Amino acid sequence: MINTMIVPITDVQLKEIQNFCPRSKDEIDQDVDIVRHWLNKQPHLPKTSDEFIKKVLFSLKYRTEKVKLVIENYYTVKELFPQIYGDLDPTSETFRKHVEAVHMFPLPKLTPDFHRVLCYRMATTDAKVFCPDNQLKRNEMMWNWLFDEDELTLGDIWVFDLTNMNSMAQWAHFNLSFMKKILKINMEAKPVRIKRVHFVNIAPIAETSLNFIKHFFPQKYKNRILFNATFESLQGLYPIDMFPNEWGGKAGNMAELSRRMHKELIKRRNWCIAMEGLKSDSSKRIGQSKTADKSILGVEGNFKKICFD
Known about the structure:
Order of helices and strands: HHHHHHEEHEHHEHHEHHH
Shape: globular
Helix content: 40-55%
Distance between the termini: 46 Å
Radius of gyration: 19 Å
């Protein structure tokens, strides 16, 4: 059993990760200055630390124009979706109930090729306990915690265990609006590299829903979405020991790992709540945005809501 939520990487591992996108200190400082110069001219965006900028730069391979776009979108979706990015107190009753309903956690160890694995499984077959916006809220809090805690990784791997997803009432939550929120946030408004998405233990009833979900991913990601009949099929891709006990590993049981992630957020409760204020303020925006993705903003200049349907 590993006692820490995530195992810190060693100096040797950090060096190997950095070598995937080599950049000298002077070059990194120059890139930070470029982004900082741009940020100083964006009064609608919150204050951002150099450490955050450096991590975004690394995640986006030091493409400064892409970094500007993602930072703009990252803070803009937080204003557009208050139902997801507001009320971030991890001690609330609503949050606690969701922890009981859905197991959601990162695996403590990185994969051998330095990817962070995020795991998901419904703890019950009761469709009434699943709230899409709460699912996204908790996922965003977990991801932001990881982005702050992890020194560097080379991307994320998602593993969805569908053992308890066996009714149409459950799959009905994965509608067009929900899927487009997921894609907008993760593909356009977050500095993340999604390397693979695994769906495991798929019931026949889920086939249509999963193909529907896959349809909305960009073409370059479709080949990264894998349907796995059992967890044994993952053993050729990852060390089995790194997985939860239920999947044949030694990381601990899923309920405990999920509770442990919740406890980490509770430890940083003030930080979580402070995240509510880290969003764009459209009242301070100067003119029309030349940076933000219009598909994020909906209609240019209208920041009250975004329409997907």
